[in-house]
């Protein structure tokens, strides 16, 4: 059996780690406030689109709250991410650049693929592991049990899973880390019920 | 667990079945043609486009799926133990909205009474191989017994203008791995492969899928790694898992987009693994870069190479254009092929590979 050992939620109101509030949105520039809250210097953050920024921030808050993550080798952590609307928010901005702005923006075009956020997290952490981005009409707890179970084995020892959505002004990130043993902070079995419950925590 | 693959199909400018496509490839025919006044500034652009006004994302998806399932037992399609995979980068871009992909996938589910909503893999240019690998992992972990993997993407202004803005579109048909290559040529198409743990569902004799994996470069979101890091790592994992030796590999179906840096990166990764002498080609000179469909189309072609013991010359290749030697296939070859390595790489630093055999 596997365990959920850390999780993180970000939405337009707050950022929570393992259910506890880390930061609340009080200003105009919520994602930048969260970046400043991390106290890191990572200029690449400012070049990312919103989808990658939200995923990056959630991954940073999650990783720093679980010291065991650093013990895995560079190719032992798989990234398993999904959402509903792919890179739609950036797709619309990019489409607008060539339809109304007179030129197709190469900087935006690169972010019209949802898996770019997997690249951003891999670059930041120097992770060379398995990775996959998939799309579902709604959050899919069955996939988030089936696929990590299918991957965990000889090469993959842990999974960072995530549902990250940016649609109009709505932002939503739910990331959770799966390991073969429970952590000091959390003793939560990796089941559909638990994943669904944690996902709903963010929205309830 | 042994995994069988078969009942494969390709819909492309080169034909509507796998064998039609392979016959075109044997004649070294390309789907790439000059299209007038289609670029962002009205440039003429070489593309591999299907010659039909009625073609759209859904019709391609549906056509390839329908062709493919003719070769397997009926009851599989609607079974809860079967999962359909749709590999695509952008789906239907005629309307850029939240249904660009889901509306077509939902329609496919309804039309064929699929028990499960298909798993959509959208992971840039490695989507096709990743979908095959994911199918294999889910079957081997006994979550499903069968998978039907479709790759599909269509040419659109959205994608063309984007690659133009990156100065990545070749003014001539692409020339993968060749010294004077100048970028990619875009293409469209669909392909389907059925994978199962059960050999008996196939009417024609299937082949085998041995293993697959993915690895990130952890280097740059749009530039290929200078050391071939992710590609080398995924090939190592895939070969180890397949339980074959480097010397067992008879043919490599490369990604080979025709950009300066991608092809150079691939040659470096292959050199690191001492795969220099294995016959290799890129099929982009025939199909262009079909993005989310590419991995599945090129795997179906690899399956025809295995079935026919025949290798296709790498169209557009003239002279060595990478710093490391690789053994480009410069004319069609008849020879015994037992083990094939398929690779792909894409934006986001992603790399994936798979090994197939007889």
Short description:
The complex is a heterodimer of chains A (204) and B (358). Chain A is of the alpha+beta class and 204 residues long. Chain A has a single domain (3-203), classed as 3-Layer(aba) Sandwich (Peroxisomal Thiolase, Chain A, domain 1), CATH 3.40.47.10.
Kindly, what is the distance between the CA atoms of the first and last residues of chain A, rounded to a whole number of angstroms? 28 Å
Count helical runs of chain B.
Answer: 9
Number of strands of chain A: 8
Instruction: Write down the overall mean pLDDT of chain A.
Output: 95
Task: Tell me the CATH topology of the largest domain in chain B.
Answer: Peroxisomal Thiolase, Chain A, domain 1
Spans of chain A of 5+ residues with little confidence (pLDDT < 50)?
A: none
Largest interface, with counts of residues having CB < 8 Å to the other chain, equals: A-B, 51 and 52 residues
The helix tally of chain A amounts to: 7
CATH class of chain A: Alpha Beta
What do you see in this structure?
Chain A is an alpha+beta fold. Chain A has a single domain, classed as Thiolase/Chalcone synthase (Peroxisomal Thiolase, Chain A, domain 1), CATH 3.40.47. In chain A, strands 1, 2, 3, 4, 5, 6, 7 and 8 form an eight-stranded mixed beta sheet that branches. In chain A, strand 6 and strand 7 form a beta hairpin. In chain A, helix 1 packs parallel to helix 2. The radius of gyration of chain A is 17 Å and the shape is globular. Chain B is an alpha/beta fold and 358 residues long. Chain B has two domains: 194 residues, Thiolase/Chalcone synthase (Peroxisomal Thiolase, Chain A, domain 1, 3-Layer(aba) Sandwich), CATH 3.40.47.10; 151 residues, Thiolase/Chalcone synthase (Peroxisomal Thiolase, Chain A, domain 1, 3-Layer(aba) Sandwich), CATH 3.40.47. Chain B contains nine helices and 16 strands. An eleven-stranded mixed beta sheet of chain B has the order 5-4-6-8-1-9-16-15-10-11-13, with helices on both faces. In chain B, strands 2-3-7 form a three-stranded mixed beta sheet. In chain B, helix 3 links the parallel strand 4 and strand 5. Chain B is globular. The model of chain B has no long low-confidence stretch (mean pLDDT 97). The chains are: A alpha+beta (204), B alpha/beta (358). The interface between A and B is large, with 51 and 52 residues.
């Amino acid at each position: 059996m596997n365990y959920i050992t850390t999780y993180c939620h970000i939405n337009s109101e707050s950022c929570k780690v393992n259910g506890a509030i880390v930061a609340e949105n009080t200003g105009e520039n919520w994602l930048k406030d969260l970046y400043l809250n991390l106290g890191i210097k990572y200029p690449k953050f400012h070049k990312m689109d919103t989808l990658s920024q939200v995923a990056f921030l959630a991954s940073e808050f999650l990783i720093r709250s679980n010291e065991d993550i650093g013990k895995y080798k560079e190719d032992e952590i798989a990234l398993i991410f999904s959402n509903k609307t792919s890179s739609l928010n950036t797709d619309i901005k990019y489409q607008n650049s060539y339809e109304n702005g007179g030129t197709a923006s190469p900087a935006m075009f690169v972010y019209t693929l949802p898996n770019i956020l997997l690249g951003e997290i891999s670059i930041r952490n120097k992770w060379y592991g398995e990775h996959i981005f998939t799309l579902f009409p709604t959050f899919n707890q069955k996939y988030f049990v089936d696929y990590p179970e299918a991957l965990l084995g000889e090469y993959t020892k842990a999974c960072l899973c995530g549902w990250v959505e940016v649609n109009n002004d709505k932002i939503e990130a739910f990331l959770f880390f799966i390991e073969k043993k429970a952590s000091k902070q959390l003793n939560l079995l990796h089941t559909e019920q638990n994943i669904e419950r944690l996902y709903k925590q963010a929205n309830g | 667990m042994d995994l069988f693959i078969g009942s494969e199909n390709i819909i492309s400018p080169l034909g509507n079945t796998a064998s039609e496509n392979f016959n075109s490839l044997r004649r070294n025919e390309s789907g790439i043609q000059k299209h007038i006044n289609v670029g962002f500034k009205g440039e003429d652009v070489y593309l591999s486009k299907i010659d039909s006004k009625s073609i759209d994302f859904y019709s391609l998806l549906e056509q390839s799926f329908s062709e493919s399932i003719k070769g397997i037992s009926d009851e599989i399609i609607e079974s809860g133990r079967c999962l359909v995979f749709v590999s695509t980068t952008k789906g239907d871009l005629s309307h850029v909205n939240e249904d660009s992909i889901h509306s077509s996938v939902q329609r496919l589910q309804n039309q064929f009474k699929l028990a499960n909503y298909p798993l959509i893999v959208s992971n840039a240019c490695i989507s096709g191989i990743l979908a095959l690998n994911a199918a294999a992992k889910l079957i081997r972990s006994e979550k499903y017994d069968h998978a039907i993997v479709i790759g599909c993407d269509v040419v659109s202004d959205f994608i063309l203008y984007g690659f133009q803005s990156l100065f990545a579109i070749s003014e001539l048909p692409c020339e993968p791995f060749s010294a004077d290559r100048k970028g990619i040529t875009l293409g469209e198409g669909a392909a389907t492969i059925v994978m199962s743990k059960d050999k008996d569902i196939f009417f024609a004799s299937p082949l085998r899928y041995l293993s697959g994996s993915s690895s990130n470069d952890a280097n740059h979101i749009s530039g290929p790694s200078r050391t071939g890091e992710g590609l080398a790592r995924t090939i190592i994992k895939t070969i180890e898992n397949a339980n074959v030796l480097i010397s067992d590999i008879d043919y490599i179906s490369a990604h080979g987009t025709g950009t300066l840096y991608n092809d150079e990166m691939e040659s470096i990764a292959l050199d690191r693994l001492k795969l220099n002498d294995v016959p290799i080609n890129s099929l982009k000179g025939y199909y262009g870069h079909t993005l989310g469909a590419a991995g599945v189309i090129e795997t179906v072609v690899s399956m025809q190479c295995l079935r026919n013991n025949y290798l296709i010359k790498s169209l557009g290749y003239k002279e060595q254009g990478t710093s490391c030697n690789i053994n480009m296939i410069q004319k069609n070859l008849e020879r015994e092929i037992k083990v094939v390595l398929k690779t792909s790489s894409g934006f986001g630093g992603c790399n994936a590979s798979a090994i197939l055999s007889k």
